[in-house]
Structure formats: structure tokens, C-alpha cells
Design a protein that fits this description.
Low-confidence stretches: 127-131, 300-318
Number of domains: 3
Number of helices: 12
GO molecular function, one term: DNA binding
Radius of gyration: 30 Å
Shape: elongated
Domain STAT transcription factor protein interaction: 2-122
Mean pLDDT: 74
CATH superfamily of the largest domain: STAT transcription factor, all-alpha domain
Protein name: Signal transducer and activator of transcription 1a
Helix content: 55-70%
Strand content: 5-15%
CATH architecture of the largest domain: Up-down Bundle
Organism: Poecilia latipinna (sailfin molly)
Order of helices and strands: HHHHHHHHHHHHEEEEEEEE
Keywords: Coiled coil, Cytoplasm, DNA-binding, Nucleus, Phosphoprotein, SH2 domain, Transcription, Transcription regulation
Largest sheet: 2 strands, antiparallel
């Protein structure tokens, strides 16, 4: 995930440090709108080469012009004014000394990394699961951003349809009559590319997060569960682990909904080398594979009676589904039975046979004390027969 996106997911006290960092040194608007371009440049190298710094300064001005053009197409008058003012200020300040600008950007990027490191260390000290919680915020943040992008795309589509119909009804020819329509077409193509790029980044982030949950968090929880079953500290609650898996699964469900929405919009507007037409099958398959991988995971838990650890040779085990979605809700039942004799029955001259009398199936309920699942059997009778 981009460094700037990670910063925006931090708590308010860290965001205040970011605000102070960009208070006077460098415009935060540029950092926001040109974050990908800024992070793609090696500013440490630029800061020690005058000629390269001059090139990057003019590249930055060109990036500002491109962003200003997008604001013009979107009729965003306020941002047009802000970016014209920002460009003038940058030219007045760094036109003759672009190396200073490169040094400021390099220093700010390093300070951002320090803020991120401090935030992660603080999360781990306050709560051992804080780091994982912070990672899960990543897909949520990108989904919110994609919601807004799809809404903007839908508005652009409506405006494009209106202008196209107006142009057809007036039957006008010439460049100036078709310019508003072509401008909206170019804007939509740019937004389409951004949406597909963000969706790919979201799936990459989700895949990395799923690997962390499955390869690190899940084995640790299982190990704590095993220790609790042999008399260690009680740690039967798996709510937090279930919440993490559920949050990631919900994000993937939203991704699939976004893909369906994008396919609806594609039917109204498409063009040659449309990124949706080219990548929709790949994106759909990736999202579905990640969701299947997540849904196939469960936690094997062991129960205890009256707070006593379960005997290691006869544990009571249940499999708890780690993804808790409304469409997958069901009652978890447990059944009591007698283990069968292992080996050849014919070789045993006499053996004992037990029958369970009474209701041998119960629905498991959540224990309020520790959050574990439990079922109580009170009226079971063991009937012994010698055969």
C-alpha cells in the first residue's frame, strides 16, 4: 500500500504530526494528489544532482498542469484556483533552487516513515493485536475511496449521456460543439484506469493480509488453545480471530459488488483497450479465490468440563468457522457418541458395549464469561452391555 494511504489510516495524534510536517515546508495538496508520482522518485539521488533536480522540478510542474486540467474537466473551480496558486508559489520559491525542493521532499518522506514506525510500535505495546487491526484498516480505507470513485464515475456517465443526447438533438458539427463531450470521455477513461488500478492494489493488500492471518495469527491462536487445554492460562475466546477473518471476507464481498457495479457501467460506456473488458475475468477470479481461501479456514478448539483441562487422550473438539457472515449463519450442534474399538472385532473375545440414552445432540451457545462455545448435557444415561 502507498505510504500516503498508510498515514491517513493512523490515529489523530499521528495525523497532527503529519500536518505539522507539511505546515510550511511543502504543500500537502501536492502530496495528496501526486502521491504515487512522488513516491516513485528517488529523491535522495535527486537532492545531490543539480541537473536531475531541475528536470524533476519541471516534471512536477507538468504534473500540476495535468491535475489542473482534470479539475477543469470536472468543473472544480476551487481546486483549479488552489493549484494555480500552488504552482506560482513553487516557481517563486524553487525555480532557481530546485535542489532545495528535492531535499525537502526527501526529508518529509523519511519523517513519514518514522511516524509510521512509531505508530506501529505503539500499537504493539498497547495491544498485541493492534498491528493486525491496523493492517485490516487498509482494505476498508481503499474500499471507501473506491465507493467515491464509482460514484464520481456514475455522475460522469450521466453527464456524458446528457451531453451526447443534446449534441445529437442539435445536430451541430465542429470542434467546439463536440469539445464538452470529448472532455467528459477523456475524464471517464482516466477514472476507469484509476478504479482498476485501485482494485488491483486492494486485492494485493488483501492477499498479503490473508497470508499473515493464516500463516501467523491462526497458528498462534491454535497454540494458545492447546496450552489452555492442558492447564495453561485460559484463552478459549476466538472472537478476535473471527472478527479479523470476517472483516477481510466482508471486504472481498464488497469488492465483488464493486465489480458488478463496474460491469453495469461498462455496458453504457466502453472503448478500445478498456481496462475493465481486459481485466474483469482476472479480477473476478482473484477475488473469488481469495474468498474461497478465507472461507476454508476454521479453528479447532477443545472444551473442558467445570474448568478442568480436557484429558489429552479423550479431547472434546469442535471446528469453529472463522468467517461470520449473515449468509453463513447457522446453529452449531454437538453430538455425544462412544468411540468405536480400533482393530479387528473378531480377535476380541469379549468387549463392553455402551448405549447413550436420552437427547445426545445439543446446540452450542456462547458462554458470557469467556466467549467460548459450550453445550450442557444433564440427562444422559450410559447403558453397559457385555457381549
Amino acid at each position: 500500500m502507498a505510504q500516503w494511504c498508510q498515514l491517513q489510516m493512523l490515529d489523530s495524534k499521528y495525523l497532527e504530526q503529519v500536518d505539522q510536517l507539511y505546515d510550511d515546508s511543502f504543500p500537502m495538496d501536492i502530496r495528496q494528489y501526486l502521491s504515487r508520482w512522488i513516491e516513485s522518485i528517488d529523491w535522495d539521488t535527486v537532492a545531490v544532482q543539480d541537473s536531475l533536480a531541475t528536470i524533476r522540478f519541471h516534471d512536477l510542474l507538468a504534473q500540476l498542469d495535468d491535475q489542473h486540467s482534470r479539475f477543469a474537466l470536472e468543473s472544480n473551480f476551487l481546486q483549479q484556483h488552489n493549484f494555480r496558486k500552488i504552482k506560482r508559489n513553487l516557481q517563486d520559491r524553487f525555480q532557481e533552487d530546485p535542489v532545495t525542493m528535492a531535499m525537502i521532499i526527501s526529508r518529509n518522506l523519511k519523517e513519514e516513515q518514522k511516524i509510521l514506525v512509531c505508530a506501529k510500535e505503539a500499537e504493539l505495546l498497547i495491544h498485541p493485536v493492534g498491528f493486525c487491526l491496523n493492517l485490516i484498516k487498509g482494505p476498508v480505507f481503499l474500499l471507501q475511496f473506491m465507493d467515491q470513485m464509482l460514484k464520481n464515475l456514475e455522475d460522469l456517465q450521466d453527464e456524458y449521456d446528457f451531453k451526447m443526447n443534446t449534441l445529437k438533438n442539435r445536430k451541430q458539427d465542429g470542434f467546439w460543439s463536440t469539445f464538452p463531450v470529448e472532455a467528459r470521455r477523456l475524464t471517464m477513461r482516466f477514472v476507469w484506469q484509476e478504479v482498476v488500478s485501485f482494485l488491483s492494489e486492494l486485492l494485493n493488500l488483501t492477499q498479503s493480509l490473508i497470508q499473515d492471518l493464516i500463516n501467523e495469527e491462526l497458528p498462534e491462536w491454535k497454540q494458545r488453545q492447546q496450552i489452555a487445554c492442558i492447564g495453561g492460562p485460559p484463552n478459549a475466546c476466538v472472537d478476535q480471530l473471527q472478527n479479523w477473518f470476517t472483516a477481510v471476507a466482508e471486504s472481498l464481498q464488497q469488492v465483488r459488488q464493486h465489480l458488478n457495479k463496474m460491469l453495469e457501467l461498462e455496458q453504457k460506456f466502453t472503448y478500445e483497450n478498456d481496462p475493465i473488458s481486459q481485466k474483469k475475468s482476472h479480477l473476478e477470479n482473484r477475488a473469488l479465490d481469495l474468498l474461497k481461501n478465507l472461507l476454508s479456514r476454521y479453528d479447532s478448539t477443545a472444551g473442558a468440563e467445570d474448568g478442568r483441562p480436557v484429558h489429552r487422550e479423550a479431547p472434546v473438539r469442535t471446528k469453529l468457522f472463522l468467517v461470520k457472515l449473515h449468509e453463513f449463519n447457522y446453529q452449531l450442534k454437538v453430538k455425544v457418541n462412544i468411540s468405536k474399538v480400533k482393530g479387528n472385532m473378531a480377535s476380541v473375545s469379549r468387549f463392553r458395549k455402551f448405549n447413550i440414552l436420552g437427547t445426545n445432540t445439543k446446540v452450542m451457545n456462547m458462554e458470557e464469561s469467556n466467549g467460548s462455545l459450550a453445550a450442557e448435557f444433564r440427562h444422559l444415561v450410559r447403558n453397559r452391555n457385555n457381549v
